[in-house]
């Protein structure tokens, strides 16, 4: 039996080498990733509500390809795609993307509810580390106390970290509690924190994304859709696209990959593209001679006021 197997392998060795090389050529992932033009997601496909809009509110997304050899060759010769060096493991990137999406969903609800004067409460909050340059704190750690004081929000945590140079930080890591002595790196702790939690309100708001979707850049458009749901339809029969992070106070923040998102809006014949101020220059360059109306927003309220006065603009 062993001899037969040996003879079979020896006889077909070139074929097996060819299969191995073919597999490596097609599927081996090198430490790079590729970004390019994406598409649009109608927000109504991610939020379960009964309201129907005259127009549509859409998220723009970036297409990200794995760094396989065929993809790298394709991107190298295609000016619409860019190749980037991967600086950390896929598992950390995936974790961060999921947590940032959860945080953006929470923030979008709060921002829309506040502006609509609806009551809400926040439960089950967690402060999760999504990036760390500090030797004693790791990605995925949950911070529960600093200097013996319970912390529930990013604001509370930031206020404590403003004072002093050294802190006793209680964390949950892999289900166990630890106390870590943490020193500032320069004037910072060297971590990125996301605050997630459940927003409790008497309005039925159920937001559900696909497992493959992540990141914070859809927060602004989620909040704009929720404001329309809680108040009145402002879409004016328009195809509206936008991007930007959102915080609980309704401030819109910068995002990455805006040029790819503009291309997606152009491809899908959008009427309006809402863009964070910090991304305006790149968005304008990517817009070219398109007739899309590019509108800068600093806050959720900016977009609402623009749509309320659309016929006057």
Key words describing this protein structure:
313 residues; alpha+beta; six-stranded antiparallel beta sheet; five-stranded mixed beta sheet; 35% helix
Number of strands: 18
Strand content: 25-35%
> Which stretches are poorly predicted, pLDDT < 50 over at least 5 residues?
none
Shape: globular
Secondary structure layout plus pairing:
Blueprint: H1 2-11, H2 13-27, E1 29-36, E2 40-42, E3 47-48, E4 56-60, E5 63-68, H3 69-77, E6 82-85, H4 90-115, E7 121-132, E8 142-146, E9 149-150, H5 154-162, E10 166-173, E11 176-183, E12 191-200, E13 206-207, H6 219-230, E14 239-242, E15 245-246, E16 252-253, H7 258-267, E17 272-276, H8 280-287, E18 293-297, H9 300-308
Parallel strand pairs: 4-14, 14-17, 17-18
Antiparallel strand pairs: 1-5, 1-6, 2-4, 3-13, 7-8, 7-12, 8-9, 8-10, 10-11, 15-16
Helix pairs in contact: 4-6, 7-8
């Amino acid at each position: 039996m062993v001899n037969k197997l040996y003879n079979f392998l020896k006889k077909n060795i070139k074929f097996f080498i060819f299969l191995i090389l073919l597999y490596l050529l097609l599927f081996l992932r090198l430490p790079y990733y590729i970004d390019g033009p994406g598409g649009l997601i109608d927000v109504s496909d991610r939020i379960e509500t009964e309201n129907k809009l005259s127009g549509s509110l859409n998220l723009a997304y970036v297409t990200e390809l794995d760094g396989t050899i065929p993809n790298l060759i394709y991107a190298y010769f295609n000016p619409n795609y860019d190749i980037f060096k991967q600086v950390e493991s896929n598992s950390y990137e995936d974790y961060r993307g999921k947590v940032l999406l959860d945080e953006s969903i929470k923030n979008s609800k709060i921002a829309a509810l506040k502006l609509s004067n609806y009551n809400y409460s926040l439960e089950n909050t967690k402060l999760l580390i999504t990036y760390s340059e500090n030797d004693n704190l790791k990605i995925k750690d949950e911070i529960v106390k600093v200097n013996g004081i319970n912390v529930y929000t990013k604001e509370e945590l930031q206020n404590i970290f403003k004072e002093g140079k050294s802190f006793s930080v209680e964390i949950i890591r892999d289900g166990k509690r630890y106390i870590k002595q943490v020193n500032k790196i320069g004037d910072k702790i060297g971590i990125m924190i996301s605050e997630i939690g459940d927003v409790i309100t008497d309005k039925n708001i159920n937001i559900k994304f696909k497992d493959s979707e992540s990141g914070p850049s859809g927060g602004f458009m989620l909040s704009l859709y929720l404001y329309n749901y809680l108040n009145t339809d402002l879409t004016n029969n328009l195809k509206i696209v936008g991007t930007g992070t959102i915080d609980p106070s309704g401030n819109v923040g910068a995002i990455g990959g805006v040029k790819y998102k503009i291309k997606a809006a152009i491809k899908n014949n959008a009427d309006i593209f809402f863009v964070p101020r910090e991304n305006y220059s790149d968005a304008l360059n990517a817009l070219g001679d398109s007739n899309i109306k590019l509108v800068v927003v600093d806050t959720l309220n900016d977009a609402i006021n623009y749509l309320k006065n659309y016929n006057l603009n």
